[in-house]
Amino acid sequence: MYFADLHVHTNVSDCSMSAENILKKAKKSGITHIAFTDHDTTQCAFEHQRLAAEFGIQAIPAVEMSAYDYEGKRKVHILGYGYKTTEHIEAIGSETLRKRHENCLRQIHILNNIGYQVPVEEVQKMAGDCIYKQHILDYLLKTGQSKSLFGDIYRNIFKNGGPCDFDITYPNAAEVVEAIKKDGGKAVLAHPGQQKNFDIIPLLVQSGLDGIEWNHPSNKDEDKKKVEAYAREYGLFLTGGSDFHGQYENGGAGLGEYPAHGESICLFVNN
């Protein structure tokens, strides 16, 4: 049996749950294979792989890298699976995390200036090495300064041109694919239906792209058909996953709700 969720985050990045608690849920759900794809870091990846084995679940080292298509002016997320080393991934990812952390510190400073009480040290306790906006929003909720995690503050301050609606610069998508390949991993384009970045697939193939995420909460039926067409044309395999973030995803999918395509079992051969 192969029932896989290959797009799962933990509290190492921006999920509200630990890997252990996620694995408990996965075991109850009948998941047989899993990949923890924390953003821009391989921290704990091999530890999580060993932990999954204790639950009788097969895991693979994984990561989700944030990137950008500077020609098409669109965000691109690249999933990396089964890497043997981490040097090239970490060289890029650590810089992205540094920028993201500084970005959130700036957002906290703005919130404090406009009347909220958000001590950096308290938010840091809720996060790993890098603070994410979800940690800030969760702190505001837990301290009674917000009524919901993704309510008015999220919509009016962090989105829609609000004072904290700004982002960082990201690495080039092709360079991210190349880094994953240099570390012995398989590179997969994440949720193209969400970011509408199908046009970059031919370029990424030249850099070594191996697959495309087929099943994902944001991929509509027409997106899946496009994914299938590109996969046939360029000899890519199909994957899938829930993009699980626990409570830190507005209307997010449940664990195992978007199982990986059967073709993705190739990732677990010799791993």
UniProtKB/TrEMBL annotation:
InterPro entries named in the record: PHP_dom, PHP_domain, Pol/His_phosphatase_N, Pol/histidinol_Pase-like
Segments forming domain Polymerase/histidinol phosphatase N-terminal: 4-69
Signal peptide as annotated in the record: none
Pfam families membership: PHP
Top-level taxonomic group: Bacteria
Coiled-coil portions: none
Protein name, as recorded: PHP domain-containing protein
The organism of origin for this protein: Muricoprocola aceti
Organism ancestry: Bacteria, Bacillati, Bacillota, Clostridia, Lachnospirales
